[in-house]
Amino acid sequence: MADIRPFRGVRYDLARVGALSDVVAPPYDVIGPELQDQLYAASPHNIIRLELNKEEASDSAESNRYTRAAKFLKDWQRDGALATDPHPAFYVYHQIYEVDGKQHTRKGFFARVRLEAFGEGKIYPHEQTLSGPKADRLNLFTATKFNLSPVFGLYPDEAEEVLKAAEAGIKDKTPLEARDHLGVLNRIWPVLDQATHTAVQGLMASKPIFIADGHHRYETGVNYRNALKEAGQLSGPDDPANFTMMMLVGMSDPGLLILPTHRLVSGFPGLTSAELVEALASDFEVKVIGKGAEAAKTAWEEIELTGDQDILGFGTVADDTWVTARLRSDARMDELVPEHSPEWRNLGVSILHELVLKAILGKRGNAACTYVHLLDEVLDSVASKGCDLACLVPPAGMEHVESIASNLEKMPPKSTYFYPKLLSGLVLNPIH
Q1: What pLDDT does 92 receive?
Q2: Beta-strand (E) ranges in 304-374?
């Protein structure tokens, strides 16, 4: 099913550019202007100049941020700041990070993966994509002819056989390390042993892959390949443009963490807890927790403790009161969105958006959401009255990603947040 290959990665020569931490960056879609400036200042060779080059007032069709990225890339290859590895490799990748005071280590490896159009093979998306980001990435692909950052792919492997096989190639070897702007420690090892390559490829051959992050980059890779194919510019089935660079992680990896994505909702000014309780009562068992930050923490602890998708937490900013609400029956969701599978209808984010925000509260106004992942961020917004209604949402699990994606369905927007993000700049993949 999955055709994966080792590849000759293009990597920074640290003797030329200095510390790896100074030249890496998070993915383009989580970089704001302030972080972009910080990364520009960190090093003249920071990958930000390729991944998200700054726009300039004089930009034109002939000279723009994409052409500048391509020039930087060529210059860095020419002067030796970037060098092509002499032998094909998989690249084992560990990320060591903390959440709520607990340390986790997520483990996987970089590989080239043969591109398949969604619905035509065994590579599955779980999120909708937008045309704007795909056009942006296609311009960058066309200009640079490189995968500058990896797609994040997941595969089933309860016994962790694939990772064990890959890590057999790094015994007693020292990794390169980089610490990102959030304090995450990133370690990478090249795996050169051909017997290891063969073992990993054999184990992966029967497995499906689920896209966790990087849907726009993946679909752009398919579009780029298709354009070359139509123009007769593919050299054959092993042409690099038939593949994309992925970080592959087993779905049972103990370091694989999906953070919740809470909603901060505007559009319901003055909404009180009494009004909310009355509105929800016909469909939910509602419990008033209390007022203030401690009540919010209690509500979230209750949601976490149950581990269920059918319980939500709500904080009404007008009176700083928190409630939990558990869905009484699946019947209402079955009625509202019959076109979706039961697995999709049972997601907490589906229940929140389709039933609470649209069907129930939609009579009061139009919900506008911003998204945060930590309870402290929710509490800050409530304290500053930055929203009208704070919604605590249980995170979707890997079993939800697998079952819904396997049905060729897309999960609702902002259903998953895989933390931490994969770094750009650890290894680059030429697609020409």
Answers
A1: 98
A2: 311-316, 321-327, 368-372
